[in-house]
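Section handout 9: paired folding examples.
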Amino acid sequence: MLKTDGIHHISAMVNDAQRTIDFYTGVLGLRLIKKTVNFDRPEVYHLYFGNVTGDPGTVITFFPWAKQLKGRIGTGQVGVTAYMIPKGSISFWESRLQKYQVSYQSSSRFGETYLELNDPDGLQIELVERAEGERNRWKLSDIPAEYAIKGFAGATLLSKFPHKTAEVLENVLGFTCLGQEGEFLRFKADGKFGNIIDTKLSASVRGLMGAGTVHHIAWRAKDEEQHQKWRELLEQEGYFPTEILDRNYFKALYFHEGGGILFEIATDLPGFTVDEPLSELGNKLMLPTWLEDKREEMVELLPHIEVKSLKGE
């Protein structure tokens, strides 16, 4: 049976590009690893953040567009994105969130303590201590490596039909069901990052796509050969996957699972150093080949953005 190792990346929609950079680099300490455009709407940035090398299971991406309406988190969406922090670091992160005046609260499930917070656009985030996964070698001067976010811990899915979502997680994507606690059903993949998925069983409001919501969640495929096998399997199971698309840094296909959530399957390779060296990731606006002759026009059209140091209170 085919099995994914877990999350490849998560893509969300926000209003303000600079505000998003400030929060995810300045507060959470992630690296801006790619500055490009939405291939389908090139007047909009596509920003990628992750660990030092942008490994699968560490990457959150954003489509920042000032004109889009506010969305509503609900069924048919990823409700919460969870980040993995090292064991013994939760007090550091409580102090850091206080420093930057980010409201948070604590909760627990499946024997783990979570810090719950929202990003500036209202996306729901959790921080949870886990021993697995390598340390993130990309660090800010005020976030030592022993406290830095390592990558995704996982995500919470808000499904219209949780039993249908559970079915695709187990029987198509190859997750193992670990059991139920309260209103959550937990699944696990074999990867080191983004390997724990919770599906909420209780009813929620209907999700509305827009700023402050997740657009899709992508699962890992080892290579293009396995990627093609996923597509064949999805067709056999009646999920109507898209054609395989070249996203430059990975190959992608998309499908809606039975609970209404947009799933993607993305290849681990070629990765984010395919068009710029590791040391320069995120510094330059990278355009697909068919837009390169319009670079000056694109630079004028897109708002100025930069990674900068923040000063907390």
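Moving on to protein 2 of 2.
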Amino acid sequence: MKIRLYGVAILGVLSPLQAFASQSTSGYLDLTQSGIGYLCLLIFGCAYTLVMLEEYLQLRKSKPVLLAAGIIWAIIGYVYQQHGQIDLAKAALEHNLLEYAELLLFLLVAMTYISAMEERRLFDALQAWMTGKGFNFKTLFWLTGILAFFISPIADNLTTALLMCAVVMKVAGDNPRFINLACINIVIAANAGGAFSPFGDITTLMVWQAGHVSFSEFMPLFLPSVVNYVVPAVIMSWFIPNQKPDTIHQHVELKRGARRIVGLFILTIATAVAFHAVLHFPPVIGMMMGLAYLQFFGFFLRRTLKHSLAKKAAAAIANRDDHALKRLGSVVPFDVFRRVSHAEWDTLLFFYGVVMCVGGLSLLGYLGVISEIMYTQWDPIWANVMVGILSAIVDNIPVMFAVLTMEPAMDMGNWLLVTLTAGVGGSLLSIGSAAGVALMGAAHGKYTFFGHLKWAPIIGLGYAASIAVHMMLNGHLFS
């Protein structure tokens, strides 16, 4: 009975509000000035507030946006049904679902490969090598930053940041100042490194899949990305002590097939690029084909496991290597589907919620209004600079998806500029990127929001310098 009363109450609220809807020239209802529109904005705002408070509430970020997406589309569906235009809303919904499906499958394959590399102990081996070399704090600061910059274009900025943070936490000991500065450096480097590669960040992947920038056309962003990282890193390095940390050397043996999986990942990337560049198909087709490479290799590893173990056991016995025999006892066969299950599902579901929420707000007419203001009344360059600043506050995924949904008429220089600013703008605040949020959890209490905020002016200097370098070096791409 209570449910029925609540339903009647909600319908009573919605019924008068829908009367404010007006018809736009495209056939869609303009609900920007209606109570319906304001209600959907409020719902999205509340959901995103909960996302930003994830660290404090311990509430996974996917939950509020999934709920908000469902409510927003339920409201839109009701209003469009009342106007006899439910087919328009359905078509818009299916368009957004297709956009998400392509990105979901692409990211799922990439995350599966990264999980497979982690399971085969590639990242553990890299970590052990770094901690066992006896580097001082300043060298570790630069080494973790440079590695983050060059690994993130392949492995994505979130995975890279967590890997480098694990190294910092292992060698830093009781030196919270170094941990804070090193984590800030890693976040900046990972975000900057991901800005010039379609595989480095979700925003660059979105721009590539949308067809606005081809794979090779991202390369002009390399030097601006380098400047974005190097400028704040040089200044912060002055505050790093020259002393050496206390480290314990640990030998890590790669599991069978580790290097070959790296080769298969490179082949998968090449396949995705070929599908997009040669056949003009969505790159996700090539990525799914690459998943088949990994599946067949996993089958090969399982079928040859007994023979491999017998061979290694014979060699260990012949060499009287007891440690090698003990290691053989912990060998397990490779399982692709277990690697799929280890993907970042919270991130993937969060992305679904964002895509659907922003798609709903676009159907209501709000993105058209924003596009009219930012990309018609403003200079596109200033609009794209603002996109980067908004990315630090809101998160770059919804901001970039909103820009792509608006589809402003921009030249190649401006498309590269918005790709750069959305990618590196999140470094301005710790909550501005997935890498920053993840590191606040991994280095809890040592890398904090306010610890990052103190260095925001220095990071902002790098942000401004990277934009200036892009406009200077790639000025011919601006019409």
